[in-house]
Structures are given as C-alpha cells and as structure tokens.
Write a structure and sequence with these properties.
heterodimer; A: 314 residues; alpha+beta; Glutamine Phosphoribosylpyrophosphate, subunit 1, domain 1; 7-stranded antiparallel β-sheet; 5-stranded antiparallel β-sheet; B: 284 residues; alpha/beta; Pectate Lyase C-like; 11-stranded mixed β-sheet; 5 helices
Chain lengths: 314, 284
C-alpha cells in the first residue's frame, strides 16, 4: 500500500525533521517495512552533503545478506581513497551506523555523473543522496524508529518528503526503500505510491541512454525518468507532465528539488492524496491524518484531480 | 440477475430516465411487505429522542472506541449527537442503522459513515475516500470537499457534498442520490446501476463509464464520456425534480437547471443475457 507525505514552508524554515516524522508515523499502518526521509536542511550551501551506504541493514525482516562490519570498513576506505583521487576533500565525516555514512565534501564540480559513477563502481556502495541541501535517510522500520536511529527530529529546513513502505515488488532493504535520489542531479529526490507497469520497458530505454538504476523497485524509475528529462533540458514541471503519459500504471508521487516541491497524480486517480495549501505552508499526504499531525486545527483540504501536476517554490 | 423485458407502460421514474430496467421475479416488494413491518425487528436499532442532545469529544479515542460510544449514547436514547475533534480519523460513524441527528464538528478520514441506514448527518469539514459507502437510507451532508469513491455502492438516501469530490464518485451505486456542489473527478458514475448523480460543476474524463442504468446530470463541462454513456433529453419533469432536490440539498437553489446535461446508459453493453451459457463463462 505505502504512504507518502511532504511539506514545504514558504519564506521560512522549520523543524522539518520532526514534522515529517509525525506525518509518516501517522501513516505507519500503510507500511512499516522501511521509512525514508528526504530533508532539505538549512546549510551554507558551500559543500556537498553525500549520504551513502556501504552495506545493508540485516535486521529482522530484512531480505539482505549478513556481512561482517570489517567489509563495511574496507568499502569506506576505498570510498575515501576514491574521493581523494578525484580531488574531493572530506570536510566532515559522520558514521551514524556501521553501514550508513554522511560526508560533507568540498568538491567544485557541477556534473556529478562521473563522480557518482566512480563512487558507485565500488562494490556494495550506493549514494543515497548528493546535494548542497538534500539529505536522504532511509532504513528499515517505521518513521519513529528511523528518526530515532538517525536523530532526525532536530533537522531544520524548508521542505521535506518521505515514504512509509510496504514492500510489494522488491525486497525489504535500504536500496529498495524510498526516497530515491534523482541521480545524477544534485538535490533531487522522489517518493512514490503505486505501481508502474512499464518499468522494464522504460528502464531498458533509459539504461541505453546512460542512466543508472540501483534497485529493481519500480518507483526508482520516476527519479531516473525525471532526471533524464531534465538532462535533456526540460524543467521539473515539464518532466512531471510528460510522466503522466510516459509512465504507465497507477501513481501519486512527490518530487523535491533544492527550492521546490511538486506532486503528480496519474490519469486514473487511483492512488490517494490529500492536500493542504496556504500562503506559508503546503502539506500533503496519502491520508488527512498525516497533515493533521502538523496542523491539528480544522483546515481546508482537498484531493487533487486525475492527471494533476503542481509545483511550489519555497 | 433480474430478467429484462420491455413494457409498454413505463413508470414516471422510468420516463425520466432514472432507471429503465424493469425488475421482474424476486423483487423487493416480495421480500419487504409493509403489512408485516410491525413484526420486523431491525438488529442494532434504538428508540431515540431527537431533542435529547449530547456532545462527544473523540480527540483521544480510536475509531472503534468512538463508534462504540455513539452506539452507547443511542442506546441511552440520545437522538442528537455532536462529535467534537474527529481530526480526520478513519471509519467514524459506521454502521448506524436508525434515525439519528449526527453532527461532526470537523473532518473525517476514509470510510466515514459507511454502511449506514437512516441517520441524518452533517459533517462540518471534509471527508476522505469512500464516504457513506453502502448507504441505505438517510442524508449525509458534507460542507467542504470529499475524496474519491464518494458514495460507492450506495443503495438509497441523499449524499451531498457542497465542495468538490475526487474520482469514481458513485461507483457501482444502486440507488439514492448524490449531489455535488463543485467539480467531480474522473470515472464519475463508473459502473453505476441505478440512482442519480447531480454535479453542478465540471466533471473529469470517462463520465459514466460502463454505466448499466441510472442518470447523471452535469451543470459544467464534461472531460469525456465513458464507454456506453450517452446524452439524453432533459425533460420538464427532470428540471422540476432537479429544482426540488437542489433546494432540499441546500445548494444551487438558484442554479439554472435548464442548461444541465443529462447522461444515461446507451445500453450497448446490455448483452450479457444474450450470451449462450458457454459464452457466459468466457465473459466472466
């Protein structure tokens, strides 16, 4: 089933980590195999923040293979060496969990394609996000468990999207969890509720164009599809509108960039979405109770119609 | 499935195009004899006094707890219950089978007022997906917007949304009336079998797709017609009924009903009974 939630504060920052945790926890009955956050925090914008993993969570319910921590250490070492070879300087390093790392990197290159390909050519290593504001954090368990594990409740920023997952079409692991980074674009992330039925056809076409897939989760296609459109010069909104016919199946998805948040709903309106919109805040989720976790007072909300695409700026 | 046959003398409802199928054989009249009504016991009903009023704050209750408490209050004879702080909770007010004035001071989540028979409900907020599913009788008024599958499979009663509704409104409905003050989404009236839908605003694509019977009235623009949904003539009797219904519904009282479009089933899909038994298996 899966649940998605997102919010954007316009003209100010807020405690988006805590707010999104509340929204996703309200949706935990829609799936708690894994939960993911894409948080757009307040930063000075100088350095890239790279969230990456060197292994999988092999806890209860995981479909991943157990590995020794020494394997993670070895992969981290190779990542560090590769960054040095590319001239990327690690400014700050955090290792929240043995398999999950956060680096602040001083790296003065706009095209992240080559950078990402080099890092991800290291076996077992996957970049979860790369950007100057975006941080993707995803792991097994419900929203509160992931939030507590990564101390996300203190993150301050302008906007965020998240996903509570019930695994249906791929494994219970971090690589199949949402959000997906819009590789290789800095600060682009996607969450999705639904099923895409032309995943393999689209994937084949996109891979032939040089795009990369890290999982077999159909939802990853949306991130790659939009990234490819933007690579060809389309705006985010143009890419999203194209996806209404380019992607087949049922879907409601959110996409976020450094300064915007968007939603798209398929032409059959088969997946739910409730939306609240005011001058200073947009909040949306699969169910109204998600929005109620940040706005408990009586509010005016609505369901966007079929084939609707909306984008908001901070 | 009821047999279909043409009759020369049509009822008023049939002449208005509200339904054109003539039921024969095991009809409702046969099972529900008014003469035996006094001997009929309806499980889960209470004698309530509409003048006996109380408030119920469900802020810290789960939906089952809240529904149980509504039932408890009805058993004490309360005929008017005001629900405070529903806060978008799912499945509130389900399974109410007797007359009751129920007022929600706020919004409901999914499946609100499902499987009800008889209550008069006012929701001073919005509702999520599948509001009033399987409504048998009564009246449900939503002051704001509603989600998708609004009034799915209702069999009777009046379901009114003063705002806009999502997709598949009135899907599989078998009776009753749904009235929308604003716009409606895609697949409105999808596979409806009887009843009437009134939309004062615009409606999305595939209106009345695969509708079997019933009538849809639209005041605004239509995105597209669904399979076997066709225009029909809006008669004087239709207009009189629409005026009366909109007045009772408290919306669109001054709406110019003469310009509304009337959509009914083209009946080109009515070929199931023409199939041979072996062909029916394939059709299923």
């Amino acid at each position: 089933m899966c649940g998605i939630a997102g919010l954007i504060h316009r003209g100010k920052s807020s405690n988006v980590g805590s707010e999104l945790q509340g929204m996703l926890q309200a949706l935990k009955h829609r799936g708690e195999d894994s939960t993911g956050y894409a948080l757009y925090g307040d930063t000075d914008g100088k350095n890239f923040i790279m969230r990456f993993k060197v292994g999988e969570n092999v806890g209860e319910g995981s479909s991943s293979v157990m590995e020794d921590v020494s394997v993670y250490d070895e992969r981290k070492k190779v990542v560090d060496e590769t960054l040095a070879e590319m001239g990327a300087k690690i400014v700050k390093e955090e290792r929240t969990l043995p398999y999950s790392l956060r680096y602040e990197i001083d790296y003065n290159v706009k095209d992240l394609l080559e950078f990402s390909q080099r890092i991800e050519s290291i076996p077992g290593v996957e970049i979860l996000s790369m950007g100057k504001s975006l941080e993707v954090i995803k792991d097994l368990g419900n929203a509160k468990m992931v939030c507590d594990r990564y101390s996300l409740d203190k993150v301050v920023g302008t906007h965020a999207i998240g996903h509570a997952r019930m695994a249906t079409e791929s494994g219970v692991d971090i690589k199949s969890a949402h959000p997906f980074w819009g590789y290789p674009f800095s600060d682009v992330s996607v969450v999705h509720n639904g099923q895409l039925t032309n995943y393999w056809n689209n994937r084949r076409v996109l891979e032939n164009k040089g795009m990369r897939f890290m999982s077999e989760c159909d939802s990853e296609l949306i991130a790659v599809y939009l990234a490819e459109k933007m690579r060809d010069g389309a705006t985010l909104e143009e890419g999203m509108k194209a996806s209404l016919t380019g992607l087949d199946g049922v879907f409601t998805y959110f996409v976020a960039t450094k300064d915007s948040l968007g939603m798209a709903k398929d032409t059959m309106a088969a997946k739910p979405l409730v939306l609240y919109e005011s001058d200073d805040l947009v909040a949306m989720g699969s169910e109204e109770i998600a929005i109620r976790s940040v706005l408990p007072q009586e509010i005016d909300t609505y369901d966007p119609f079929d084939g609707e695409v909306k984008v908001w700026q901070i | 499935m009821a047999n279909l046959k043409s009759v020369s003398k049509k009822s008023k409802a049939q002449s208005m195009g509200m339904h054109s199928e003539v039921l024969t054989g095991r009809t409702q009249q046969k099972f529900f004899n008014p003469d035996e009504a006094e001997n009929f016991y309806y499980f889960g009903t209470y004698d309530v006094d509409f003048n006996k009023r109380t408030d119920l704050d469900v802020k810290d209750m789960t939906a089952p707890e809240a529904n149980k408490e509504i039932d408890n209050l009805m058993s004490q004879g309360y005929g008017t219950i005001v629900i405070k702080n529903p806060q978008g909770k799912h499945s509130l007010g389900v399974g109410i089978l007797n007359k009751l004035n129920l007022i929600f001071e706020g919004s409901l989540g999914y499946f609100g007022m499902g499987s009800c028979d008889g209550p008069i409900v006012r929701i001073n907020g919005r509702v999520g997906w599948s509001c009033a599913e399987n409504l048998m009788a009564g009246k449900v008024v939503i002051e704001k917007n509603a989600g998708s599958c609004f009034g799915a499979a209702i069999r009777g009663g009046d379901l009114i949304c003063k705002g806009s509704v999502g997709a598949r409104t009135g899907i599989d409905m078998k009776g009753g009336t749904i009235i929308i003050g604003g716009d409606a989404g895609a697949f409105t009236g999808f596979m409806m079998q009887r009843g009437r839908i009134i939309i004062l605003g615009d409606v999305g694509i595939n209106l009345g797709d695969s509708m079997y019977d019933g009538t849809i009235f639209v005041g605004g623009e239509i995105g597209s017609y669904g399979s076997d949904a066709v225009d029909s003539e809006l008669t004087k009797s239709d207009q009189d009924w629409l005026k009366r219904k909109l007045k009772v519904a408290e919306i669109g009282e001054n709406f110019d009903v003469s310009k509304m479009k009337k959509i009914v089933a083209g009946k080109k899909l009515w070929n199931y009974d023409n199939l041979e038994p072996t062909e029916k298996k394939g059709a299923i």
